[in-house]
Design brief:
It is built from six helices and nine strands; from the N terminus they run ββαβαβαβαβαβββα. The chain is α/β, with parallel strands linked by helices. The longest helix is centred in the first third of the chain and has 14 residues. The termini are close together.
Length: 190
């Protein structure tokens, strides 16, 4: 609708073995300044994604942050193979994402945004938080999004939308391109 600055921050991770690889019980200080105890080395993508949203808030002074990732296997259980899962701190932005999904065919389904219910899943005795949930049966897809949300700048008043698209991005061994039209549709509504 109006003019705005648009930034794309690519938060890329590779889960590889090597002498500098993250190990269980390591503690990392992320860009947000928060410390994270590693309790799941397969949850590496959320570490760089958390850095990306922290950078967007702190250095780019973004009013809207949209992060998209193949973040969890739990997304498939939560919303299936055809719908991405969205977690959002704004009813208005969430509605725009759902509408963009309907119009583009890249469907999304909202999950609960309840940091007060999910942050306890990341409790750590040695850091500000762990990188993975304690109880995988407690809406772990929404909880993983809460981990990302926790790294937005303290007191930030902007709108945040998380899209977990682990399942819709592929059919069998082939990529679908899911997310491109959805993001364009959301941006057209801002």
């Amino acid at each position: 609708s109006g003019d705005f600055n648009l930034y794309a921050i690519l938060c890329l991770a590779e889960n590889a073995v090597g002498p500098c690889a993250t190990r269980p019980d390591d503690v990392h200080t992320l860009y947000s300044g928060k410390t994270v105890e590693i309790n799941n080395t397969d949850a590496e993508g959320r570490l760089v994604l958390a850095d990306g949203v922290a950078y967007a808030c702190a250095d780019l002074e973004a009013d809207v942050v949209i992060d998209m990732a193949t973040l969890t296997g739990a997304q498939g259980s939560a919303t299936g193979r055809k719908h991405g899962a969205v977690v959002c701190n704004s009813d208005s932005l969430e509605a725009k994402a759902v509408q963009a999904g309907y119009e583009t065919g890249e469907l999304v389904c909202p999950l609960p945004f309840c940091p007060e219910f999910f942050m306890g899943e990341f409790k750590s005795e040695v850091a500000d938080m762990k990188n993975s949930v304690k109880d995988r049966s407690n809406a772990s897809c929404a909880a993983a999004a809460t981990f990302i949300h926790a790294h937005l700048r303290e007191g930030w008043q902007g709108e945040w939308l998380h899209v977990d698209m682990a399942y819709p991005v592929k059919i069998g061994e082939r990529a679908t391109g899911y997310g491109v039209a959805l993001l364009k549709g959301i941006l057209e509504r801002l």
